[in-house]
Design brief:
With 205 residues, the protein is mostly helical. The protein has helices at 23-26, 37-61, 81-84, 93-99, 103-122, 126-144, 166-179, 189-193, 196-200; strands at residues 10-14, 29-33.
């Protein structure tokens, strides 16, 4: 097989010629395996899934990172009150503050985190997970509104970039995962796609 005929993810590296090596040995090559694009996307998909799932677990059980035990959801805390209740920037700050601590907002937020995380880790429903994930990230972006240098009280927002922040980066990653069907590698995407109701509704893939 020539170098041009090498399979995807496998590079054919010719062995350096040596005068003392027989011609047959010189013709041999060393196979160097490299991760394919599909495998890289799978790693990215699982990483993003763990990011969403960790946020759900920390807010639910108060694991002591971004949420203390006393503010855990299972202990009566509100997953949205601490964040949305202090929004002082952006065009929707009043609306977001009104949503803070509302039962429906807490449930939608937490169900979204858990569902998106599990879907990405398992590789099923990646398209709908990406769509809802982008929507959730958009709300969070508006809550932090990195465009603003100062909040409504005049205090500095400490924004480091008015355009690109981690919410936007995560959103772009989610779109890429959906477009390239990242759930089919190291996930259950292929099996999921063969289900009758999924085959009839491709948007569920």
């Amino acid at each position: 097989m020539s170098i041009k005929d090498a399979p995807t993810g496998v590079a054919r590296v010719p062995v350096q010629q040596n005068k003392d090596v027989a011609p047959a040995a010189e013709a041999r090559s060393v196979t160097v395996r490299r991760p394919t694009g599909a495998q890289v996307l799978a790693v990215l998909r699982i990483t993003m899934g763990l990011t969403f799932l960790w946020a759900f677990l920390d807010k639910t059980f108060g694991l002591g990172y971004s949420t203390s035990s006393s503010h855990a959801w299972i202990n009566g805390g509100s997953p949205t009150k601490g964040f949305l209740g202090h929004v002082e920037v952006g065009p929707f700050q009043g609306m977001l503050r009104d949503w803070a601590g509302q039962g429906w907002a807490d449930w939608l937020f937490m169900i979204g985190l858990a569902a998106i995380g599990l879907a990405l880790i398992l590789g099923i429903g990646v398209r709908i997970a990406a769509t809802t994930g982008v929507l959730l990230l958009a709300f969070m972006w508006f809550a932090e509104f990195p465009i603003a240098r100062f909040d409504s009280t005049g205090a500095a927002t400490s924004s480091t970039n008015p355009f690109i922040d981690y919410h936007l980066v995560y959103a772009v990653v989610l779109v890429a995962l959906a477009v390239f069907a990242a759930g089919e590698t190291w996930g259950f995407g292929r099996m999921w796609a063969k289900l009758d109701f999924v085959a009839r509704n491709p948007w569920l893939r």
